[in-house]
Task: structure prediction
Amino acid sequence: MIIPIRCFSCGKPVAGYYQEFKERVEKGEEVGKILDDLKIKRYCCRKMLLTSIDLTEEIMKYQK
Result:
């Protein structure tokens, strides 16, 4: 998965939060609470984590 290293809008590093965010979402925690706990307050940074989709499996289908 290629997670953006920095927020496209404000430039804050967000890639370091992705693994913990993903693990906690899979455990079933509330997304808003997770982002608050990680101290991600800006809506642009929250968007970066919420909208990141793992497309690795999809891309692998088209490899020669």
Observations:
- Residues 11 and 19 are 19 Å apart (CA to CA).
